[in-house]
Amino acid sequence: MTNVFFKPAQRKNAKLRLAVSGPTGAGKTYGALMLAKGIGGRIAVADTENSSAELYEDIVAFEHANLQPPYTPEKFIDAIKAAEAAGFDTLILDSITHEWSGVGGCLEIVDKLGSTTFRGNTWGAWSEVTPRHRKFIDAMLQSSINIIVTLRSKMETVQTNNGGKKKVEKVGMKAEQREGIEYEFTTVLDLTHENLAIATKDRT
What we know:
- By secondary structure, the chain is α/β, with parallel strands linked by helices.
- 33% of the residues are buried.
């Protein structure tokens, strides 16, 4: 006897999970704030960028928390839980790149564990760090409020052969977070240096 039951699919109102990715100066923080303003309600910003979000307090009304290193997954989980408990409608995490590659982030934790507890075995260290990172992702996905995150990205280039002449071409931007992070979001906007947003994923 099975415990699996099916019923007609029904589209429901869901909380937004939006990622805004782009290089320095592309407008990630400003864009995230304007999107949150458009959604409406109370906005919270958990800021890892040395309070840079506060430069926009004259444009968008929001409440601010300045996150300091170490940028452990647990620190971001705490920020999500605090925003939920305070009754905010939207939380902006600016930026979650720090959870991955910032001071005290996942990569640094792996290096530290690999050189100590796991005696040079960084692969073994991931067995401890991956579940911690996954709990952070789950905290975003299961949150009762809208979540907007920003991601630093870097332009990737390739060398092509154009009529015998070698040429370097830009092929897009790679977000500085764990591979496949874009799968976790409802919508992903990639910002260019020209402040143009390209929706590379949209399930709204």
